[in-house]
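Workshop exercise sheet. Pairs work together: one partner reads the sequence aloud, the other fills in the structure field after running the prediction. Swap roles for the next sheet.
Pair: D.N. / O.F.
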Amino acid sequence: MNEKALMEISEQVKILHHAGDQLCALGEAHDFPAMEYNAKRLLAVVEILEINISDLLEPIDPGEQDAAEHS
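Structure field:
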């Protein structure tokens, strides 16, 4: 996967994060516990996606790569 595709995915995940934050706030503001609960669950999934993307975007230290290959 190329960096451009990863950046597009990253942007969409940021949009999801923002939407999750908004839904959580709306659920809290309008006394809608199910909305708040499910928005927090959505945010937990979004955090995993953010971790996945950051792992792919971070450059790999050649020393770490050599060590992993020889393990």
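Discussion prompt: The CA atoms of residues 22 and 39 lie 9 Å apart. What would you look at next?
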